[in-house]
């Protein structure tokens, strides 16, 4: 059996009071500190399911530097037997289904497939601020 890991978790920070610029800067700095130091891999995709952000923990878990994964399709590293289910899960997320869990295999840079438990969470993004 392949090793089971848990990653690709989307973090949802608490509400941010955008009326206070100082609070927003503090919240953003805290969020960046958490995201860049977590052992979980955090990924943000664009509307075409391409990676636009991947946390530094991808180096340890997957063997890839985040820059190597940016702009690439969400499914490029999926095990072929899990591809259809992963595609269906990711594309099924929307206003009526904002969060979904998927357990699947992903290929590390060294070619080994590992099992992942992924939580996909739809986040509206407006002018760089969660809406």
Automatic annotation (TrEMBL):
InterPro entries: PAS, PAS-like_dom_sf, PAS_fold_3. SUPFAM superfamilies: PYP-like sensor domain (PAS domain). Residues 27-97 form the PAS domain. Pfam families: PAS_3. It comes from the Bacteria. NCBIfam families: sensory_box. This is PAS domain-containing protein. The lineage of its organism: Bacteria, Pseudomonadati, Pseudomonadota, Alphaproteobacteria, Acetobacterales.
